[in-house]
Design a protein that fits this description.
Layout lengths: L1 E9 L9 E6 L4 E8 L4 H18 L9 H22 L7 E2 L1 E7 L2 E7 L3 E6 L2 E4 L6 H7 L5 H6 L19 E6 L5 E5 L1 H4 L4 H9 L4 H14 L6 E9 L12
Antiparallel strand pairs: 1-11, 2-3, 3-4, 3-5, 5-6, 6-9, 7-8, 7-10, 10-11
Protein name: PPM-type phosphatase domain-containing protein
GO molecular function: protein serine/threonine phosphatase activity
Keywords: Hydrolase
C-alpha cells in the first residue's frame, strides 16, 4: 500500500483573499490544513505559519524514541500554537490572529489525527463516509446537549463560531485520536468552506467517481463554489492505494 497526497485551496466566490492553507509531506506521512482568522491578511499568515510549524516540528522532533504517533502530533500542534501566538504578540498588525487546524500523521497502518476548531477529517471506506473529527463550535456543543438537531445546526446563523483555535493563548486544547487505515481508504481533510456547502451525501458521490485525484479535488471545490462559494475552500485527499485494485469499491451509484 502506498499513500497518494493531493491538495488545493480556492478563494471561493465572495471572499477577497484566501485564508486557508494546506501542506503535505509524503516523506513524513503528513497532511495539514488550516483555516485562518483575523484582521487584514492576518488569517492567511496564521494558517500558513501553523502548517509550516507543524511540519518543522515533526522534522526536528527529538522526543522519546518510539513515542506514540498521537503524542508526536500533539507536540507539533503545540509548537504551531506557540509560533502563531508569538508572531501575533510581536507584530501589531497580526494581533488577534488565529487559525483552525486539522493534521494527519501516518506511520504504516496507523493514522493519528489532531484538530482544533471546525476543519474536519473524513474517511471513505467501501463507499461509506464517516467523520473522524467533531467540530469545536458552539453549535456542535448545542447539538451534543440536545438543544439543536443536526439539521438545524447546518442552518444556524452562528454555526462557524469556534470554541477553540490555534494562536489565541500560550496553550491549546487539542483533540487527538488514532485509527487503523486499510488499503483502498480515502481520507479527506477540509475547511468549513467545503463541509458547510456540501452534504455528506454530495461529498460521497464526488469521492466515489472514478478519476485522477487532482480531478476529484477540483470537483469538490467546484461543487462548493456552485453551492454559493461563501467561504474559502481547502481540500486534502489521501488515497491509500492498494497493491491490488479491489474488485468492488462499494460506492453508491
Amino acid at each position: 500500500m502506498r499513500l497518494l497526497f493531493t491538495a488545493a485551496t480556492d478563494t471561493g466566490r465572495l471572499r477577497p483573499n484566501n485564508e486557508d492553507a494546506v501542506l503535505t509531506d509524503a516523506e513524513l506521512g503528513l497532511a495539514v490544513l488550516a483555516d485562518g482568522m483575523g484582521g487584514y491578511q492576518a488569517g492567511e499568515v496564521a494558517s500558513r505559519l501553523c502548517c509550516e510549524a507543524v511540519q518543522t516540528s515533526l522534522r526536528a522532533d527529538d522526543g522519546p524514541a518510539g513515542a506514540a504517533l498521537g503524542e508526536r502530533l500533539r507536540r507539533a500542534i503545540e509548537a504551531a500554537n506557540q509560533t502563531v501566538y508569538d508572531h501575533a504578540r510581536h507584530y501589531p498588525a497580526y494581533r488577534g490572529m488565529a487559525t483552525t487546524v486539522v493534521a494527519v500523521l501516518i506511520d504504516g497502518a496507523r493514522l493519528a489525527v489532531g484538530h482544533v476548531g471546525d476543519s474536519r477529517l473524513y474517511r471513505l471506506r467501501q463507499g461509506q463516509l464517516v467523520g473522524l473529527t467533531r467540530d469545536h463550535t458552539l453549535v456542535q456543543e448545542q447539538v451534543d446537549a440536545g438543544v439543536l438537531s443536526a439539521a438545524a445546526a447546518r442552518a444556524a446563523q452562528h454555526r462557524n463560531l469556534v470554541t477553540r483555535a490555534v494562536g489565541v493563548a500560550p496553550w491549546v486544547d487539542i483533540t487527538l485520536t488514532e485509527h487503523v487505515i486499510a488499503p483502498g481508504d480515502t481520507y479527506l481533510l477540509c475547511s468549513d468552506g467545503l463541509h458547510d456547502g456540501l452534504t455528506d451525501a454530495e461529498i460521497t458521490r464526488i469521492l466515489c467517481r472514478a478519476g485522477p485525484p487532482a480531478q476529484t479535488v477540483q470537483a469538490l471545490i467546484d461543487a462548493a463554489n456552485a453551492a454559493g462559494g461563501h467561504d474559502n475552500i481547502a481540500v486534502v485527499l489521501i488515497h491509500c492505494v492498494p497493491a491490488v485494485p479491489p474488485e468492488d469499491d462499494a460506492c453508491p451509484r
